[in-house]
Amino acid sequence: MSSAEDSGSTSVPPGRSGGPVWRPYRRRRWSKEAIVRTIEALRETGADLSYSGAGAARPALHRAAIRLFGSWQAALTAAGVNPEMVRRRRQWTSEAIVERLRQMAARGADLSWTAVAYGPERALAAAAVKKCRFGSWQAALGAAGVATEVNARRIRRWDARTIEEAIRRRRIEGLALNAKAVEREEPALFAAGRRRFGSWNAALMVAGVDPATVMMRRSTPATRGSRGSAGSDTV
Fold first, then answer.
1. How is 174-207 classified by DSSP, letter by letter?
2. SS3 state of residue 234
3. Cα–Cα distance for residue pair 187/91, rounded to 1 Å
4. How far is residue 50's CA from residue 89's CA, in Å, rounded to a whole number?
5. What SS3 class is residue 181?
6. In Å, how far are 156, 174, 195, 214 from 204, measured between CA atoms?
7. Tens digit of pLDDT for each residue in 177-218?
């Protein structure tokens, strides 16, 4: 005997005629591909992808990811998201924002809006410009006392030529060119390449670099043979 769930319908108390009233029950059927696409889309919007945040805001996705991938962390990894970067999302108070900006300035970090908003500190940038915090990036920099820092005001003007040159420079210096590495190390370049050419792979090809040749991280003498997973990063 089939149940209401098996038939794709649910019953409600009978109507005036005495018979049951049937309403369709729609349940999304998750696949690994659908989960990965959803996580990627959520990442682009800056959504909270921590275990507790995703479990509270998107329980269906969260349950499906754990069922199909074995854990939420494994699902994040499959979508190209570093679980450590989203674990325990910080609550950005005005004081915390000011403290982090001063720390970044002290170590010489690029404090331009593009570099921060498209880099690992994107959550900091998003919090700083909220009306309940500082309202603008320049106001946040001013509150932290770093608005006059040279690296805060110098916003590089990226065009096709400078993007190509930067990619070739990294290649000559033996630096990784896969998307994850460049986004982490030079977020402004990564953001400019995607914005100018539509994707990071397209930017690589314009610079004469075959994306297939940078999908695997090149091992160094110190790591070659000792870490078999060193080439697992993809573009």
1. T---SHHHHHHH-HHHHHHHHHHHSSHHHHHHHT
2. coil
3. 23
4. 7
5. helix
6. 19, 15, 13, 9
7. 888 888 877 777 888 899 999 999 999 999 999 988 886 444
| Mean pLDDT for the stretch of residues 214-229 | 44
CA distance linking residue 41 with residue 146, whole number of Å:
33
Read off the pLDDT band of 11 (50, 70, 90). very low
**Which amino acid would we find at residue 66?**
I
What's the longest Cα–Cα distance across the chain? 80
Contact residues for 120 (Cβ-Cβ < 8 A; gap 6+): 85, 184, 187
pLDDT at position 168: 87
> Is the pLDDT higher at 118 or at 217?
118
* Cα–Cα distance measured from residue 17 to residue 50, given in angstroms and rounded to the nearest whole number: 50
Greatest mean pLDDT among 4-13, 204-213, 221-230 lies in 204-213
- Give the Å distances, CA to CA, from 154 to 110, 115, 151: 9, 11, 5
Q: CA 12 → CA 6, 26, 157, distances in Å?
A: 16, 15, 62
Which parts of 63-220 are beta strand (E)? none
Identify residue 124 by its one-letter amino acid code.
Answer: L
Average pLDDT, the chain: 75
Alpha carbon separation from 160 to 154, 164, 176 (Å, rounded): 19, 6, 20
Give the chain's length.
Answer: 235
- Token pair of 14, please? 């009978």
